[in-house]
Specification:
The protein is of the alpha+beta class and 376 residues long. 36% of the residues lie in helices and 21% in strands. The strands form four sheets. Strands 1, 2, 5, 6, 7 and 8 form a six-stranded mixed β-sheet that branches. A four-stranded antiparallel β-sheet has the order 11-12-10-14.
Length: 376
C-alpha cells in the first residue's frame, strides 16, 4: 500500500493544486470565498474553471457533474462530457465559467415539500466553492464532481445543503456579535466543526442476495433471532476479523485518496456491526465527506463479496446503527467555545454558548423539562 501522505487527497482539487495552477490574485480571492462563504467574484470563475478542467483532464477525466443533495436524501448527479464544438466545427474539450458555476437539471421529479407545481420543471445547481471538487472513478474514466446547491428557477430550496449553509451563516453572524460583546476582537469568523461517526452492518453478498427484504428495503422484515446476539457484549471493541480488516484497509485507502480523514475503525456492539469515524472538519465539508464515505463503503464492500447495510435498524433485537454527529463551535483562531477552562472565572464564553444552545435546543433535546415547565 502506498504511503498515506503520498496518496492523501490525490483525487481532490486541493488548495495546494489551486496554488499551483492559479495566479496569486485569483488564488487569494478563491481562498477568501472558501473561508468566508461570501459570493464568488465572477471575474475569477473563468480562471478557476480552466484550472479545474486542466487538472481533471490530466487525471483522465472525460465528464463533469454538479453533485447535489436532493430532499429525498442521498446525492444526485448528471454527467456531461467536456466536449464542445470549436468555431470551425471540430470537437474540443472546453469547460466554461458558466458550466462551473451553474447547471440546469430537470427538477420536476425531485421532492419539493409542496412549494411548487410539478410542471415548473426547471431547476438550477450552483457551485459551492466552500467544498472542494473531486474526481469520481466511473469504470474506465473519471468524472469531475462539483459540490453544489439545488434551487428551483424561482429560488425555492430543493436540497439539503442550502439550509445547512444558511444555518452556518446565521451562526457566524450571531456568534461574531456575541464575541464582540465579550471583548473578543481576534475572531474574524465563526467555525462550526463536525465529526460524524458512521456505524454500519456488513453481510455476505451471497446471503444478501437470498433475502428480498434486504435487497429491496435494506433491512429485514421477517426472520428468527440469531442463536447468539449481543448478549455477551464481546463484539464491541473486540479483535477485528481478518476479512473485515482487509475491507477496512481498502476502504481507508480509497477515502484517503479523496482527502477524507478517516481516523478510527472498530467493532460495534452487534455482531457484524462496525464503525468508522473521521477527524473533525468544518461542518459543510464533513457532511459532504460523510456522503462520499457511505457511497465508497458500498462500492469497496462489493469487491470483497460483502454488502454494507446503512439502515438505522436492519435487524430486530439488535442495536441499530447511528450517525453520531460530534459537533463543536469556535472561531478562526482555533478557540472551541464548548471547551471549559480550568478556571471558572474564565468560562463566560463556554457558559454563554452552552446556555444559548440549550435555550434553542431545549424543547427537542430535553422534552421532559419542556413538559415540566408547561405543567407549572
Amino acid at each position: 500500500m502506498s504511503k498515506l501522505t503520498e496518496i492523501f487527497g490525490e483525487l481532490t482539487f486541493t488548495k495546494a493544486i489551486m496554488r499551483e495552477k492559479l495566479s496569486r490574485e485569483v488564488y487569494e480571492k478563491l481562498v477568501e470565498t472558501v473561508q468566508t462563504g461570501n459570493t464568488l467574484d465572477e471575474t475569477i470563475a473563468g480562471d478557476v474553471a480552466h484550472a479545474m478542467k486542466e487538472w481533471a483532464i490530466g487525471k483522465d477525466a472525460t465528464h463533469f457533474t454538479h453533485w447535489f443533495q436532493p430532499q429525498r436524501g442521498g446525492t444526485a448527479e448528471k454527467h456531461d462530457a467536456f466536449i464542445s464544438y470549436s468555431d470551425e466545427g471540430n470537437i474540443i474539450e472546453r469547460f466554461s465559467a458558466k458550466q462551473l458555476t451553474q447547471s440546469e437539471p430537470d427538477a420536476s421529479s425531485f421532492p419539493s415539500g409542496g412549494i411548487r407545481s410539478t410542471f415548473e420543471a426547471r431547476g438550477y445547481t450552483a457551485w459551492d466553492p466552500t467544498s472542494p471538487a473531486f474526481l469520481l472513478e466511473t469504470g474506465r474514466t473519471r468524472t469531475l464532481v462539483i459540490p453544489s446547491v439545488f434551487l428551483s428557477w424561482t429560488g425555492d430550496v430543493l436540497d439539503l445543503k442550502t439550509p445547512l449553509l444558511r444555518s452556518l451563516r446565521a451562526l457566524n453572524d450571531a456568534g461574531l456579535k456575541l464575541q464582540r460583546l465579550l471583548g473578543n476582537r481576534l475572531a474574524k469568523r465563526i467555525v462550526v466543526n463536525a465529526g460524524p461517526e458512521q456505524e454500519y452492518f456488513v453481510v455476505s453478498k451471497k446471503l444478501y442476495e437470498t433475502r428480498p427484504d434486504l435487497r429491496i428495503c435494506g433491512r429485514t422484515l421477517f426472520g428468527a433471532p440469531p442463536a447468539k446476539g449481543q448478549q455477551m457484549e464481546d463484539h464491541y471493541f473486540g479483535a477485528i476479523h481478518p476479512k473485515m480488516i482487509r475491507f477496512m484497509e481498502d476502504l481507508d485507502h480509497e477515502l484517503y485518496r479523496r482527502g477524507i480523514p478517516a481516523k478510527t475503525r472498530h467493532n460495534e456492539v452487534s455482531p457484524n456491526q462496525f464503525e468508522i469515524a473521521p477527524l473533525y472538519e468544518e461542518a459543510n465539508l464533513a457532511t459532504d465527506h460523510n456522503l462520499q464515505t457511505m457511497d465508497i463503503m458500498k462500492k469497496v464492500a462489493l469487491t470483497h463479496d460483502l454488502v454494507v447495510l446503512l439502515h438505522e435498524k436492519p435487524f430486530a433485537g439488535l442495536n441499530g446503527s447511528g450517525k453520531h454527529a460530534n459537533w463543536s463551535i469556535g472561531d478562526n483562531t482555533g478557540a472551541n467555545f464548548l471547551e471549559p477552562s480550568a478556571s471558572p472565572l474564565k468560562n463566560v464564553n463556554f457558559l454563554l454558548t452552552l446556555g444559548a444552545l440549550m435555550q434553542v435546543l431545549g424543547p427537542d433535546f430535553f422534552p421532559e423539562n419542556h413538559v415540566r415547565q408547561k405543567s407549572t
